[in-house]
Amino acid sequence: MRVAVFSSKSYDRQFLEAANQGQHQLLFLEPRLDASTAIAADGAQAVCAFVNDHLDAGVLGLLAKQGVKLVALRCAGFNNVDLAAARDLGIEIARVPEYSPHSVAEHAVAMMLTLNRKIHRASARVREGNFALEGLLGFDFHGKTVGVVGTGKIGFCFIRIMTGFGCRIVAYDPHPNQECIDAGADYVELPELLKQSDIVSLHCPLTPQTHHLINEQAIASMKRGAMLINISRGGIIDTRAVIRGLKSGIIGSLGLDVYEEEDNLFFRDLSNSVIHDDVFARLLTFPNVVVTGHQAFFTQEALTEIARITLENLTRFEEHGRAAHPVSVERLAG
Ligand code: NAD
After folding, report:
1. What pLDDT was estimated at residue 333?
2. I need a labelling partner for 40 at 20 to 30 A (CA). Which of 29, 147, 149, 294 fits?
3. Cα maximum dimension of the chain
4. pTM
């Protein structure tokens, strides 16, 4: 099958080619998929897309006109796809529901440790010959309360790591997970979680229900000085409200791997450009904020699995007319 792989980087090519073994004709395209680039899929039966590719009704319509029958997402989240439009156009949407939840959970912990022990600042200081410790004071995670919002595959991995640190876990999820209860998590409602937690980590998908879940009101109910970690999707937090929370000191530190407007920034080298997003630029001025460019998934194990499952989706669709891991429009309701 001919597959147009959008937003592809050298590492995508490396892992997808290794998994493909020449079975499908993979056409690697660097541009992001949107209305202006969809034409590049001409002649392809499938499109392989990533987190910031635009798969709204307009783009899906253009793909359908060119004969595309399958969109194989090489990620777990599918908030960037208009599922109802895909269904109406007869385009199957497939994803990689699980690759390495450890990769993402471990990145959340890396951010927590960095922020708490100020590794980003300490490392820069030492390189400047400054060995003073003022301003680098951290706290023990042991004995602290960690609030986990969303306790699916990644949330569960994260809970297991944090219980290893000796933390108390409170969790919020409309569908409690027995494995998390067995691991020691106490389920509470979201306002209670925000009130009790020294650290709040977000592991739910971006849906209409979770959009701006962490807003002005939620921040006002947080423990003063709490750490907030978002490695899920940028839209789950209201960035402007979080900036106000940082300025008032309610949010003591912030770790972001995702950002609401990241599709204008992430996955490219903009080091020679001026950043026009003033909200993002403001975030970067805080000493107690660490931002990474959507790299939580970026481990060898995760990329190997993403490539393997993406190829499984392509091959199963070609052979049986149904991908191995389809996303149906009904998922929106859940
Ligand atoms: P999952 O489907 O296993 O778990 C998601 C959990 O969130 C489910 O238990 C669900 O019930 C819960 N949830 C749904 N609505 C909620 C709400 N309103 N409040 C609280 N919880 C709610 O998914 P997962 O594999 O654990 O991934 C979670 C999210 O992590 C993905 O949707 C994706 O957005 C994000 N992610 C980020 C990266 C990255 O590189 N930064 C990589 C992979 C996944």
Report:
1. 38
2. 294
3. 64
4. 0.93
